[in-house]
Amino acid sequence: MLRIIAKDLVKNYTLPVGPKGLIRSFFSANKKVVPALDKVSLQVGAGEALGIIGENGAGKTTLLKVLAGITSATSGDYQVNGKVATLLDLASGFRQDFTARENILLAGAMQGYSENDVKKKVDAILDFSGLHEFADQPIRTFSDGMQVRLGFSTSALLSSEILLVDEVLAVGDQRFQRKCLEWVKRFLVQGGSIVLVSHSLHLVTNMCNKAVWLEQGRIRAQGPSQQVVDGYIDKMRELEHEEAQHEKGLASGSDEGAGTSRASEEERKNAFGKGSKEAIIISVELLDSNEEKKKVFKSGEAMKVRVKFNALKKIDSPSLGVAIFRNDDVYVYGANTRFDAEDTTMRVFEGEHSFSIVFDSLPLLGGSYQVSVAMYDKDHVFPYDFHDRLYNFSVQTDKQDHGLVILDHHWEID
Question: Distance between CA 79 and CA 311 in Å, rounded?
Answer without folding.
Answer: 64
